Amino acid sequence: MKSVFSFRFFAGVFASLSWFFSVSSHAVDVSVVALFPDKALVFIDGERQFLKVGQQPVKGVRLIDASSRKARVEINGVAKDYFLSRDMGDGIQSPELLTARINRSNDGQYLAQSIINNKPVQVLVDTGANVVAISSATADRLGIRYQDGSPIRVETASGVVKGFQVMLNFVMVGGIRVANVEATVIEGSSPETVLLGMSYLKHIRFSEEGGVMTLQAPY
């Protein structure tokens, strides 16, 4: 009986350890796409999360420290530094990234001049918007055929209004061009300024410090 018990006991321990190492070995895919003082916008296994220093871990990921240059992130108990600039490898220096800097306005907004589908328009950087948002009045001026897009309902501060999902040929801010950018055109005159949302920003690197928003081309 003793030998049978011992076998069952150690078999149970082995099974528990196998399960533990299997769970622990799961690799969490983390990428940092934007940095702010004590905050970072990251993608965890493809899902966007806004982390703050002191916040409880999200999917095993905790932000230890963050500045405009780098973030120190703990993943399942292991700390690692993430940088916005490209890593150096094999002794070869990466080429200098195309950079645009936007000063914060007196009312706390980051406004910039952009080119959308070859036409100039002012945009407001909005990290809380999932896509670029354009009023139909502005879309008409830019020559966007939004009526050919997919009709949707958009919830706004004044209620639910009609909108259209479209694909912009390209959006360029400070020389940083991104092609095929998803956008929502909202019927009416609001928003008065185009909202530069994550459908553009997710393709670039950006950070904010001291009242300056810095945009960088990904390569």
Structure report:
The protein has 219 residues and is an alpha+beta fold. The chain has helices at 2-24, 136-142, 198-201, and strands at 30-36, 39-44, 47-52, 61-66, 70-75, 78-83, 99-103, 111-116, 119-125, 132-135, 150-156, 159-173, 176-186, 194-196, 205-209, 212-216. 16% of the residues lie in helices and 48% in strands. The chain contains 3 helices and 16 strands. It is globular. Mean pLDDT is 81; it is low at 1-25 and 85-95. Strands 8, 9, 10, 11, 12, 13 and 14 form a 7-stranded mixed sheet that branches. It has 2 domains: 30-83, no CATH class; 103-216, Beta Barrel (Cathepsin D, subunit A, domain 1).
Give a brief rundown of this model:
16% of the residues lie in helices and 48% in strands. It is an alpha+beta fold and 219 residues long.
